Amino acid sequence: MRWSARLTGVPWRAAPPTGAGTDEGAPSADGVVVPGPRDPTNLATAAELLDLHKPQNLREVLNRIPAPVAVTYGPLHQLGYANRAYRELFGDRTTGLPAGEALPELGTMGVLALMDQVIRGGRPRSVKARCILGLTGNRYYNVSCVPLGPGGPGGPGGPGDTGDTPAEGPPAGVLIFAAEVTDQVLAAARLREAERRQREAAVTLQRSLLPQKLDQPADLRVAATYQPGGAEAAVGGDWYDVIAIDGGRTALVIGDVMGRGLRAAAVMGQLRTAVRAYARLDLPPHEVMRLLDGLAMEIDANQIATCTYAVWDPQRRTLSYASAGHLPMLLRCPDGTVLRSEEQNGPPLGTGDGLHVSHTLRLLPGTTGVLYTDGLVERRDEDIDQGLDLLARTLTGAVGAPEVICARLLRAMGVTSEHDDDVAVLAFHLPAEEAEEKAEEESVAGAEPELDSAFPEV
């Protein structure tokens, strides 16, 4: 088998055939000097270069190490030796002094307490990525403290130490070894900074795509909130919208694009814009879902989204809605009963099935509804039904304006600035006059409404 190799900037040149060069270093037929074959039997062995049985001076060995090394002895960690790399980093150090005086940099890094643990326990200890301000500027090191054997004239750091005496009894000293990791630390910092900037860009993009001010119908109170995930969570594609359409009706929308980052936020913006356009076509909710499904496939066939689209008609006092794989809407009746919307819904947007169904409910004055994304109820260590049950119990006692309800739900569900997922919540309330409210309370006392597609009252 023939092979070739080249240095950077050197043209490729194939290796000459066998026999092209007769002697080692002799030129071949085309004038290229080709090294001759090596004879392994003529190579110097490690034993010839270094006598393994000859004791080596520990000071000389440590002095050749390019990493900072220091050796201390005794319970006060008196400095016995610092190699050349250590002195170049921190300057000359006076031997015989306790480490607190001779090696003040170790105290700054929190290594002195680590050395005490080594003496007491006899086991190595280490710390990572400690910043060291040396003569050459800020550097980062992983510092290890290793126990050494019993001391004495030939002990560790002593003039006659050869390093081959087995350690017996409690440690008499500590060897401090620092491995530089400046490049790794700076690279990790640059990566974190890049991730932070990308996340900020995604949050800014997503917030700019969400409605800055919600439409407020005269007969329906609406509020919404969006809470991005914490610093460790990438921004998702949650969104909400309130759209005023013909006939005094109002469309309520909430959705969630699967995935994270700028791509999910961009897809969310396209879907939200499409929903606003489709809402003005006066189509039933399931037809809007069908159009969105086709658009989602055109945007990215590998990315799906869930969505609930509902239309409030004040003349008929009905709420018509369709869901594309989204979590059920919660409704709190005037008597405090909390119900979930129809479980039957269509597949997520982007799957191409288009089998969505519209449902219609007649709402009683005083009804409160909540639309939300999975970040509000989903937890990694719990079943999602537990989150839905907790949300329903919380909504039972949540009273007040929709803004107050949104804030209370976030607080009760444990959503903070460090939450591991972004959350969108849209709450609406159908106000009732005092006389109407009293009459409704008397009429619904002891009755529990049912949800179906035959215009049930809620």
Written account of the structure:
The protein has 458 residues and is of the alpha+beta class. 29% of the residues lie in helices and 22% in strands. It has twelve helices and 15 strands. A hairpin with a 5-residue loop joins strand 7 (237-244) and strand 8 (250-257). Helix 7 packs parallel to helix 8 and helix 8 runs antiparallel to helix 9.
How would you summarize what this structure contains?
This protein has 458 residues and is an alpha+beta fold. It has helices spanning 46-49, 58-64, 84-90, 99-102, 104-108, 112-121, 182-209, 261-279, 285-299, 384-397, 402-412, 434-444, and strands at 69-73, 78-82, 125-134, 137-148, 173-180, 221-227, 237-244, 250-257, 305-313, 318-324, 330-332, 338-340, 359-362, 368-372, 423-429. Helix 7 packs parallel to helix 8.
